[in-house]
Amino acid sequence: MKLTPKRKRSDSAAAAVQAHQNAAQGPIEPPPYITLPAACRPFWDAIVTARPRDTWNDADLANAANLARVQHAIESAVIGSDEHAKLTRLSMALARAVAVHPTATVGRAADLVNAATAEREARQDDGDELIPRLRAV
After folding, report:
1. CA nearest 61: which of 27, 26, 92, 98?
2. Alpha helices, DSSP H only, in the chain?
3. I want to staple 27 with a disulfide (CB 3.0 to 4.6 A). Which of 9, 45, 55, 95 is the partner?
4. Phi, psi dihedrals of residue 129, rounded to the nearest 5°
5. For residue 129, is it within any domain?
């Protein structure tokens, strides 16, 4: 028995609409139970926009916050090569954890790639004079 809901085809009109809606909303805000220092926010924004907005769950967001903190520590701290190597390994492990078993959480890998590409293109689309682009309110 499959527990995950069936995902829309990434090349469908519904997926294109979802990609534009996701892009219009901007980066996901950290959940209220996660404390994220302001200095980590650029890393958070980069992490949560790397995947389609509608594919994130609470556990992924907690790992994304940890990953943002680790990436900030790597970027901002003057650390020795041993400490840098440890933080880099931790960063890589957390990056994998954010997308743990993508088939179970977001569907086929090919669909995730197509959905991420559609959302990225929607963010870069300036639209057309006759067709307004969706914007966050």
Report:
1. 98
2. 13-25, 41-48, 58-76, 81-98, 102-105, 109-124
3. 45
4. -55, -35
5. no
Query: For tokens 């990056």, what's the residue?
Result: 95
Structural domain tally of the chain?
Answer: 1
Tell me if 58 is assigned to some domain.
yes
DSSP letter string, 16-33: HHHHHHHHHH-SPPPPTT
Check if the beta carbon of residue 73 is closer than 8 Å to that of residue 65.
no
Give tens-digit pLDDT for 47-77. 898 888 888 899 999 999 999 999 999 998 7
Q: State which amino acid sits at residue 61.
A: L
Cα–Cα distance, 102 to 134 (Å, whole number): 28
How far apart (Å, rounded) are the C-alpha atoms in residues 43 and 73? 11
**Structural domain of 66:** 13-124
> Does 67 reside within a domain?
yes
